[in-house]
Specification:
By secondary structure, this protein is α+β, with helices and mostly antiparallel strands. It has one domain. It is built from three helices and six strands; from the N terminus they run H-H-E-E-H-E-E-E-E. Strands 1, 2, 3, 4, 5 and 6 form a six-stranded antiparallel sheet that branches. The chain starts with a helix and ends with a strand.
Length: 165
């Protein structure tokens, strides 16, 4: 008798669990009324190395004139949010920030990629982006002019917008 009661209880609980997790389709009209948390957050700890960047002068008489930036490195933390915003919302942002909107179609939605501001995310200075170039050489020479570094590159507050047209 105990087994039958336990089996019955298990069957009822299973039915409730399946019913609670059942997916039901929503028509486009109904989906437009749904609201909730939107967007995606991305965080990355960068450790990027570019072997070299080379500029070569190809004008007449300048054969072989080049400069190479060798072992370019980027390190540090970066965090970004990705949201879809309405054209009207972007229009308000564009107006507030002074972004030239002559090329923008306000009828379409916009994908916004934003790096949180300093007020939204606190990072220790050691976590900010650094960029370095290990050596700078000319022509086919291996002699270096030295190296350069840019430290504590703070991209917080940067925004990028993407839309179709």
């Amino acid at each position: 008798m105990k087994f039958i009661k336990k089996a019955g209880l298990a069957a009822v609980l299973s039915a409730v669990a399946v019913a609670a997790s059942a997916m039901t389709p929503i028509a486009d009209e109904g989906l437009s009324q749904v609201s909730g948390q939107d967007g995606v957050s991305i965080a990355a700890s960068l450790n990027v190395n570019v072997g070299s960047f080379q500029y070569t002068n190809t004008t007449e008489g300048a054969t072989g004139a080049s400069v190479s930036f060798n072992n370019i490195g980027f390190t540090g933390l970066i965090a970004a949010t990705i949201d879809v915003i309405s054209g009207a919302h972007f229009g308000a942002i564009r107006t507030a920030t002074g972004v030239d909107g002559s090329f923008f179609n306000p009828a379409s939605d916009v994908v916004q990629i934003a790096i949180p501001t300093a007020a939204q995310v606190t990072l220790p200075t050691a976590a900010l982006l650094d960029m370095s170039v290990a050596s700078i050489t000319m022509g086919g020479s291996t002699a270096s002019f030295g190296r350069i570094a840019m430290n504590d590159i703070d991209l917080r507050g940067t925004q990028v917008w993407i839309w179709a047209h």
